[in-house]
């Protein structure tokens, strides 16, 4: 894992598009079926839209029918961090970027084998890097 990226709220506002800021920094959620990665099947890697941290390989993406891009497992165990989320009257497990702590979505125990997990992510919180292209980590 690369070094953590910590920026002030003001710096995040300058670097991110408003919709990225709302999800990544304010823990928002895009509407179901509205994200650009819901139906994509292109090979490559999904990286954090905030910092460029590699998160998920396209090969573990699956159609969950929920309206958000879903994955069975992160690229590396430390690519993401998980937190107990008791907001909105629910008990869920929030998933954040392991590098910049940006909100990505939630993980649920109802996914397919081999993990049985469904990492339900917001499209706006990620960018797709096509197979064979290098990742570009954002610097402080």
Topology of this protein?
Layout: H1 9-15, H2 18-24, E1 44-48, E2 54-57, E3 61-62, E4 70-71, E5 80-85, E6 92-97, E7 103-108, E8 118-121, E9 126-130
Antiparallel strand pairs: 1-2, 1-9, 3-4, 4-8, 5-6, 6-7, 7-8
- What fold name goes in the CATH topology slot? Metal Binding Protein, Guanine Nucleotide Exchange Factor, Chain A
What is the CATH level 1 assignment? Answer: Mainly Beta
Sheet with the most strands: spatial strand order: 3-4-8-7-6-5
What percent strand? 25-35%
Which bin fits the share of residues in helices?
Answer: 10-25%
Instruction: Find the count of extended strands (DSSP E, 2+ residues).
Output: 9
The main β sheet shows up as: 6 strands, antiparallel
User: What is the H/E order?
Assistant: HHEEEEEEEEE
Low-confidence stretches: none
Number of domains in the coordinates? 1
Keywords: Metal-binding, Oxidoreductase, Zinc
Pfam families: SelR
GO molecular function, one term: peptide-methionine (R)-S-oxide reductase activity
Protein name: Peptide methionine sulfoxide reductase MsrB
